[in-house]
Amino acid sequence: MAIQNGRISTDDILDLAITTAKIKDDAVESEKIGANEVLTAAILDANVTNAKLGTDISAAKLTAGTVPDARFPATLPALNGSALTTLNATNLASGTVATARLGTGTANSTVFLRGDSTFAAPASTGIDWQSSVVTASTITVVAGRGYWINTTSNTCTITLPSSANVGDELVFTDFARTWNANAVTIDPQTLNFKGGSGVITFNTKGQSINIVYSGATQGWIPNTDTNYGTGSYSADLLVVGGAGSGGYISAAGQVGGGGGAGGFRTSTQTISRSTVYTITVGAGGAGGTSNNNGSTSSISGSGLTTITSAGGGKGGIADGSNGADGGSGGGGASASGTSGGSGNTPSTSPSQGNNGGTGTTGGSLYVAGGGGGSGSVGVNGSGSIGGNGGNGTSNSITGGAIAYAGGGGGASRQATGAASTAGAGQAGGGDGGSEGGGRTGGNGTVNLGSGGGGAHSFGGQGGNGGSGVVLLSVPTVSYSGATTGSPTITTDGSDTIIKFTGSGTYTG
Predict the structure, then answer these.
(1) In Å, what is the CA distance from 302 to each residue of 201, 274, 495?
(2) CA–CA separation, 34 vs 104, rounded Å?
(3) Average pLDDT in the chain
(4) Between the CA atoms of 480, 483, 486 and 487, what dihedral angle is there, to the nearest 10 degrees?
(5) At residue 78, does pLDDT exceed 50?
(6) pLDDT at 227
(7) Can you give the residue ranges of every domain in the chain?
(8) How wide is the angle at C-alpha 453 spanned by C-alphas 422 and 382, nearest 5°?
(9) Computed from CA positions of residues 99, 100, 105, 110, in that sequence, does the dihedral angle turn out positive or negative?
């Protein structure tokens, strides 16, 4: 029977009556498929091809782990910094950035990594002024700070940092305008201050000190150089003049006197920083076939009370002459009435030396006087014995006790040719000549300022006087190291010893 158009309804179709074979190919159009009607189960495996995929598949459409490694190309494109736009610390595991990727150095509270991959302290951004006023007698300060220093009740010693970076700055200000009454002393420790070492004192009313660290050579230096105080420290000084020679022979049958020691003087004085002190070391008098006084030693400089030690007097010539005056006097030659020279010439207090001994002649005996020493007079010649030199003076400025400035011994002779006894030199002084002990007088020891020995007759020669010496003992912390003349530098405990055996200078 014929079916009219539109007469078969859904109710006329039995369940499962329309099979795949009853549906003509391409007969079901997309309009006939409702939204969300095609289920995953209705799609056969591998039936969705690349051609059926659109261009809008995003990461949200991909289940985690669904893209296998085989889907990535064998060589990935190079990655550069432009591809990293949201990388932060949370994306970096601890230790993943190697040290080699950073600059050299170590960051700390004062050192930071700069943009050029170097570590450095940041430039000063100003002085951190302290709110508390300093009234204590001592304070250790921190770089980059300013301090109000009140010395109304006492002086104040400021200890600077033991180390510093170039550009470190410090400021100190006279809070109560009392530095003229109670000074401020700055101790730079092992660092330099204005190119030198040691403490420096500031004593100007209302003064303000602004200093900056420039490096090891100059150390801390002021931003201005007006009224920047004077550093000073105490030093022990020893000055010994050159000694006189022993007397030589100018007349047969006579003997020469011992040479007088160079003047011996000590002092404790204040040394000022940047002040040049001039040192002169006196030569010993030349002996031989002439006799000569020793030369003067001295130290002088601005603000220093000059110390001058006179050269020692020469021994009397064996023609009956007297010993010469000097720091210590030379001994008189053998003749009746000959006298030793006067010591402490020119006069100083305390005395720089002593008189020489007297020579004499008696029958067949000829004996000369010993030269004066810094510690005692020269001994008179007596009987068949020449006079001993006067004693020297012991001093421990170098750390160990050393005797300086002893007199030379007087010579002796017996006309009968019998043995006689020469006078002995003291503290490095030369022994006198004698019939049985050598006719030439002994030389005084160099750099002790001790006299030469007198000559025995019949070709004997007088001994050379020993050269002088100048010694300074300064606190090692204050020693500047600035010298000329090649002195010998040693240390003893906390002191530095500067020994001049020739002329030169020391800059405080």
Answers:
(1) 17, 10, 23
(2) 70
(3) 85
(4) -60
(5) yes
(6) 47
(7) 128-229, 231-508
(8) 35
(9) negative
Q: Copy the structure tokens of residue 341.
A: 């020279």
Which helix (H) or strand (E) element contains residue 209?
A: strand 208-213
Smallest CA-to-CA distance from 277 within 310, 237, 226, 311 is with 237
Tokens of 343: 């010591």
Compute the radius of gyration of the chain from its Cα atoms. Answer: 51
In angstroms, the CA 322 to CA 314 distance is 9
Distance CA(133)–CA(353), nearest Å, equals 55
Cα–Cα distance, 495 to 489 (Å, whole number): 11
> 222: Cβ–Cβ under 8 A, 6 or more apart, which residues?
194, 209, 210, 211, 228
* pTM, to two decimals: 0.61
Of the candidate CATH numbers 3.40.800.20, 3.40.50.300, 2.60.120.640, 3.30.300.130, the domain formed by 128-229 belongs to 2.60.120.640
Residue pointed to by tokens 């055996």: 501
Statement: residue 411 has pLDDT above 80: yes
Is residue 108 packed enough to be buried (19+ CB in 10 Å), middle (13-18) or exposed (0-12)?
exposed
Look at the block and give the residue holding tokens 């720089």.
352
What six digits make up the tokens of 416? 């009968």
Q: What tokens were used for 24?
A: 């003509």
- Identify the burial level of 380 via C-beta atoms within 10 angstroms of its C-beta, where 0-12 means exposed, 13-18 middle and 19 or more buried: buried
Rounded to whole angstroms, what are the CA distances from 132 to 145, 148, 184, 217? Answer: 12, 8, 17, 33
**Cβ neighbours for 297, distance < 8 A, ≥ 6 positions apart:** 239, 240, 241, 242, 262, 263, 280, 281, 282, 308, 309, 449, 468, 469, 470
- Compute φ and ψ for 317, nearest 5 degrees: -75, 145
Q: Pairing state of beta strands 200-202 and 184-187?
A: antiparallel
pLDDT single digits (tens) 344-386: 999 999 999 999 999 998 778 899 999 999 999 999 999 889 9
3-class state of residue 434 by DSSP: strand
Q: Which of 392, 254, 365, 362 is nearest to 316 (CA)?
A: 254
Let me know how long the chain is.
Answer: 508
Within 8 A by CB and 6+ apart from 281, the residues are 242, 297, 447, 467, 468, 469, 470, 500, 501, 502, 503
* Residue 71 identity: R
Residue 482: both structure tokens together:
């600035």
Neighbours of 137 (CB within 10 A): 12
DSSP state of 52: G
Residue 200's SS3 state is strand
Give yes or no for residue 77 having a pLDDT over 70.
no
Cβ-contact 425, 403 below 8 angstroms: no
